[in-house]
Amino acid sequence: MLPQSELSPNLEINPSMDGELYTSINFFKRINPLLPEVAVNLQHPVWPEIEKFVQSQNISSWPQFLQHHALLSSAVFRLSEDRAFLMQLVACGMPIELIAYSDWMNAIKSCQNFWVDELGDGDAIEMARVYIKERIQTILQIAPSLTTTMAWIQYQLWEELHEPVLEVALAKSQDAYRLVDQLWQGEDSLLQRKLLRVHGSVEVWPTSKLFIKALNAFYTKSPKSIQLILDQSINEQRRTLFWPLSHDYKCAVVNLPVLCGLWSMSPVPMAWWSKCPDRQRFIQDLLRFDPIWFQVAYNQGCKIALALGVRCESNWE
């Protein structure tokens, strides 16, 4: 089986290929034009085929499938074995944290519609809610970094006030930048307690220039309202969102989880991360190096995005 990075989406089918790979590519080429429709329609007739194919564990030969985040998020709520599928994604090099809030929300709304269409009675909404919350629990067991994301979804759909939502509300009522201060300011900051002291004797850290590249990509693709926040982060010390030591060898470990969380809650698609396997691979390296810091920083990035109004929703005043 070829790794993801060595498979081109335009790879021609050659009958001399390995049988499983040949079948994988042939199947994907057939369903590829349907994927946007399949992602929003959980009753689409292709889903049983996707279920069968995922169970065959050939997903690593579907590079475009792994790039289609809307389909991946819908699959979590449509396939019978959600935990196995999520673990398979991680094994194939797809960090679940790179699926955006909007993809998760759309998947959950599609799941609700699926249940209503299937049952067609007054109990469908409540049954869908129970089913969705069970799936959310599985997601959080595998990717705790998505705690704020899932809390915000449950607030938007059902007005549930989980702790991250309350923290965002408190920050908005006082000073949104207090969430940034919690990350960087003082000896009791999250940075000090959750990362620097923990690795005080570690000399070799994952290093990369990916943070600067990712931040530039995010800035370029962002609407002006977000660009203004990022400009203030550079020009005004009080509004600095990221650890300022951008040339320090710890920079990528410190800042990338915060940026990923901020980006995931924004309206900017996260497709940039899938365009180069090395980007996803480095995020996996960060998760392996210190999963606790990644979870803390990613969640804080999500809260900062919400408190600063990066994500505008109808259910928030």
Account of the protein in words:
Helix 5 (69-78) packs antiparallel against helix 6, helix 5 crosses helix 7 and helix 6 (82-91) packs parallel to helix 8. This protein has two domains: 4-141, no CATH class; 162-307, no CATH class. With 317 residues, the chain is mostly helical. It is 62% helix and 0% strand. The protein has helices at residues 19-31, 35-40, 47-55, 63-67, 69-78, 82-91, 101-119, 124-142, 147-158, 163-174, 178-184, 190-196, 210-221, 224-235, 251-265, 277-289, 291-307. The N and C termini lie far apart (51 Å).
Helices and strands in order:
Elements: H1 19-31, H2 35-40, H3 47-55, H4 63-67, H5 69-78, H6 82-91, H7 101-119, H8 124-142, H9 147-158, H10 163-174, H11 178-184, H12 190-196, H13 210-221, H14 224-235, H15 251-265, H16 277-289, H17 291-307
Quick recap:
With 317 residues, the protein is mostly helical. It has helices spanning 19-31, 35-40, 47-55, 63-67, 69-78, 82-91, 101-119, 124-142, 147-158, 163-174, 178-184, 190-196, 210-221, 224-235, 251-265, 277-289, 291-307. The protein is 62% helix and 0% strand.
